[in-house]
Amino acid sequence: MLRRLYQWVIDLAERRSAPWALAGVSFAESSFFPVPPDVMLVPMCLARPKLAWWYATLCTLASVVGGLAGYAIGALLYESVGQFLIQLYGYGSKVEAFTEAYQRYGHWIILIKGLTPIPYKVVTITSGFAHYSLFWFVVLSLITRGLRFFMVAGLLYWIGPSARSFIEERLGLVTAVFAIVLVGGFIAAVYLF
Questions:
Q1: Keywords for this entry (predicted)?
Q2: What range does the domain containing 8 cover?
Q3: pTM above 0.90, yes or no
Q4: pLDDT-based confidence at 146, cuts 50/70/90?
Q5: What pLDDT shows up at residue 59?
Q6: What is residue 155's predicted lDDT score, i.e. its pLDDT?
Q7: CA-based R_g, the chain, Å
Q8: Are the C-beta atoms of 99 and 9 separated by less than 8 Å?
């Protein structure tokens, strides 16, 4: 079943509509959706390595625009939507501490958390709630999200064929490691937040 799912994702990644789906997932992940865009970015870069840089650019821009939506949720709709999303991800009791940390370390929080598997939507919503500078939020989001997605795309561009064969030969292991990193990011965010 896992192999069929992998092949389905690779086939989906080769479709003409795949970039739109990647942009949609990138946007949604930065504001409310729990699945990171890497689940589409990786197979798309493996399926078409020559387009890896375009995919990373698209992913970055959509993620920053989605981050602006998350920022708006935090700034304008925190009492209704924002608080619900923060509590849904298990961070409700830690928002005040995070807001205080923003006063001293706002730049570093955005830069570091934007590179990790810690859910970026928590950063975007809390940035809006804390009324962090919108200008710096956009600049730092472009840097950190761009770095993250361009590192993935670059790695797959340069080692694409060998990465694809490695993934296909060890699909179960790669899936398990990805799941552990994803779940570990959520757990780390709960305890480090």
A1: Membrane, Transmembrane, Transmembrane helix
A2: 2-192
A3: no
A4: very high
A5: 95
A6: 86
A7: 17
A8: no
Asked if 28 and 121 count as a contact pair (C-beta separation under 8 A), the reply is no
What percent of the chain clears pLDDT 90, i.e. is strictly above it? 28
Residue 141 in tokens: 């989001």
- Residue 166 carries which side chain, given as an amino acid letter? F
Provide the residue count of the chain.
193
Instruction: Give me the number of domains the chain comprises.
Output: 1
Ranking 10-19, 78-87, 166-175 by mean pLDDT, the lowest is: 166-175
